[in-house]
Amino acid sequence: MHTIISVCELSKTYESRFQALKGINLDIRRGEIFALLGPNGAGKTTLISIICGIVNASEGSVRVDGHDIVADYRAARAMIGLVPQELTTDAFESVWATVSFSRGLFGKPANPDYIEKVLRDLSLWDKKDNKIITLSGGMKRRLLIAKALSHEPQILFLDEPTAGVDVNLRRDMWQLVRSLQATGVTIILTTHYIDEAEEMADRIGVISKGEIILVDDKAELMRKLGKKQMTLQLQTPLEHIPPALAGYQLELASDGNELIYTFDAQGERTGIVALLKDLNDAAIAFKDLHTTQSSLEDIFVSLVKEEQ
């Protein structure tokens, strides 16, 4: 798959000497949904802002479909639609006027049919003549996407697109993102909702303290870092784990009623059969067991903790 955005050795240091980004290298593939995860202050918005030409980098370069974002700013920026976290538009303008105006800012000729399609796709058509101040929070969020799509970009950045919206609207927007990807649009989203990345993304990048600490296909990430846990509910509480079971690195619940065994579900040998035999030999009986799979959230939390 071809690269549409190439970030090379990108760094950003503000006048306060705070270094927001440190030597970022990142390639975004054409047509993918890429989720950028990271805690508050990790550098997500700074990175997006530099790629979109809003913030100047201190070092490094960014190319958008071969166009340098500094030397060939207009061509690079014309390919990008940005949905920011906050609504920044005239509250007393109509929906139709503000989306049409956004299209004109990029030098695109008027195209009422296209604007109508965007508004219909976003369930905004019946609000086209309404002033922005009268819209609900969810409608305003949809309006931000309509403005970003007004000039027919090939790349769409979504910075916390579903922050503060209800569950139903979040799922509607997920469906919209999938439909955009189906038309060939490349989607880059930042999110605090790990389930959003797990649901939507083809690839995931994790940024912490201004550095990219991991980029991988979602499925591969889950395979490599996702662990399974088997929890055994004991018939009789234990005060401590017998030395004969030390090799399994078991965890004993605080009340002594459960043993927790973590294993690699993808490995050739999980060790479960041997563990159950050794439990029997140690006269430790259990009345029930269940297994759980690590979620993307578990993986994200563990990765960020390692960097602290």
UniProtKB/TrEMBL annotation:
Residue ranges the record marks as coiled coil: none
Source superkingdom: Bacteria
A molecular function GO annotation: ATP binding
Protein name, UniProt field: ABC transporter ATP-binding protein
Residues covered by the ABC transporter domain: 5-234
Record's keyword terms, sorted: ATP-binding, Cell membrane, Membrane, Nucleotide-binding, Transport
Short name of one Pfam family: ABC_tran
InterPro entries: AAA+_ATPase, ABC_transporter-like_ATP-bd, ABC_transporter-like_CS, ABC_transporter_ATP-binding, P-loop_NTPase
Record-linked SMART domains: AAA
CDD domains (alphabetical): ABC_DR_subfamily_A
PANTHER family noted in UniProt: ABC TRANSPORTER ATP-BINDING PROTEIN
